């Protein structure tokens, strides 16, 4: 039986990328994982006190059990778990090295990367799997001043904003959690949302909390409103009552994220015009470009709420089975 002369390159070392690497290794196919940040980089950038809305067994990969002190795991437990899994399988992970472009064709790709130090490298690959997620591509507000240092697209923790005037833009889970933690830490919080209320899909233990803080006047909320400009010490809003200007020190733009479809399109991957969902084989997740596969949330296009760790982790098995079959291993 022949073996693959070249490794499979996986762009992305999140839970889905790790699952792909594990499933390939189980089948005797070598793989190299590249990530622009650290292992499970997106999870690392989650809020420090985040609690997953799931149970530990639904985050498991590689047949390794995950344990938690509580019914629902927290961010720190997840980070520890995925480090342990990566170490257990001795995965070849190149952290802080971004895949910049892929050339060649099925069975003979050349993958170009850029290290954090700026060094340019390349390696040969038989197949390529894109598992880059979407968390590094925030949806921008598109207003003057959005490039100011005071504008933050990733909420981590609240301590640094004690005693400041802070605006939170959005009304889904991330915005609600940020607003509550900032308020409890002593920030003066204003929530701004273009919709008429807190999003109905906010976690059931978070939604009444944020709604009560707003009802009690502890957090100021402007619904059916939008930010029109951000300035060094203020923000401008358009509200149902007309334009207003608020004192402001920091803006948390919690407006969601989207996959880098331009990068994928540049590599010959095509999309449905309406949903921006990439065309893939539903059984193997191979794209229209032979030898290139998509895994995780990328498969969902703009419908990023369809795929999470809980179901994206199974993509590794689908993809690895197809690759192993095609490589004859």
What is this structure's SSE topology?
Blueprint: E1 8-11, H1 15-26, E2 31-34, H2 41-44, H3 75-88, E3 92-94, E4 97-105, E5 108-115, E6 120-125, E7 127-130, E8 151-152, E9 165-169, H4 173-184, E10 188-192, H5 207-215, E11 220-222, E12 226-231, E13 234-239, E14 242-247, E15 250-253, H6 261-265, E16 292-294, H7 309-312, H8 315-327
Parallel strand pairs: 1-2, 1-7, 2-3, 7-16, 8-15, 9-10, 9-15, 10-11
Antiparallel strand pairs: 4-5, 5-6, 12-13, 13-14
Helix pairs in contact: 1-8, 4-5
Written account of the structure:
The chain is of the alpha/beta class and 329 residues long. It folds into two domains: 8-137 and 257-327, FAD/NAD(P)-binding domain (3-Layer(bba) Sandwich), CATH 3.50.50; 151-253, FAD/NAD(P)-binding domain (3-Layer(bba) Sandwich). 22% of the residues lie in helices and 24% in strands. It contains eight helices and 16 strands. It has helices at residues 15-26, 41-44, 75-88, 173-184, 207-215, 261-265, 309-312, 315-327, and strands at residues 8-11, 31-34, 92-94, 97-105, 108-115, 120-125, 127-130, 151-152, 165-169, 188-192, 220-222, 226-231, 234-239, 242-247, 250-253, 292-294. The strands form four sheets. A five-stranded parallel β-sheet has the order 3-2-1-7-16, with helices on one face. A hairpin with a 2-residue loop joins β12 and β13. α1 (15-26) runs parallel beside α8 and α4 packs across α5. The chain is globular.
């Amino acid at each position: 039986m022949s073996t693959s002369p070249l490794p499979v390159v996986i762009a992305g070392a999140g839970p889905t990328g790790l699952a792909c690497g594990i499933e390939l290794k189980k089948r005797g196919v070598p793989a190299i994982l590249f990530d622009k940040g650290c292992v499970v980089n997106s999870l690392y950038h989650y809020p420090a006190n985040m609690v997953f809305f799931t149970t530990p067994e639904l985050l498991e990969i590689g047949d390794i059990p995950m344990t938690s002190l509580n019914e629902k795991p927290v961010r720190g437990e997840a980070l520890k778990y995925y480090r342990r899994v990566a170490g257990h399988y001795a995965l070849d992970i190149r952290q802080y090295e971004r895949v910049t472009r892929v050339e060649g064709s099925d069975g003979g790709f050349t993958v170009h990367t850029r290290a954090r130090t700026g060094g340019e490298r390349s390696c040969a690959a038989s197949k390529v799997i894109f598992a880059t997620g979407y968390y590094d591509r925030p949806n921008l507000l598109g207003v003057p001043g959005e490039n100011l240092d005071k504008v933050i697209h990733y909420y981590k923790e609240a301590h640094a904003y004690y005693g400041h005037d802070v605006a939170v833009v959005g009304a889904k889970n991330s915005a609600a959690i940020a607003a509550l933690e900032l308020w409890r830490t002593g920030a003066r919080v204003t929530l701004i949302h273009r919709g008429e209320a807190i999003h109905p899909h906010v976690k059931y233990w978070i939604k009444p909390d944020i709604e009560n803080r707003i009802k009690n006047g502890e957090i100021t909320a402007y619904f059916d409103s939008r930010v029109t400009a951000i300035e060094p010490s203020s923000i401008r809003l358009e509200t149902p009552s007309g334009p207003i200007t608020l004192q402001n020190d920091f803006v948390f733009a919690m407006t969601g994220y989207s996959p880098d479809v331009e990068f994928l399109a540049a590599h010959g991957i095509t999309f449905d015009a309406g949903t921006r969902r990439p065309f893939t084989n539903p059984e193997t997740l191979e794209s229209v470009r032979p030898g290139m596969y998509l895994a995780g949330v990328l498969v969902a296009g703009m419908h990023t709420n369809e795929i999470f760790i809980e179901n994206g982790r199974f993509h590794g098995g689908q993809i690895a089975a197809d690759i192993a079959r095609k490589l004859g291993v």
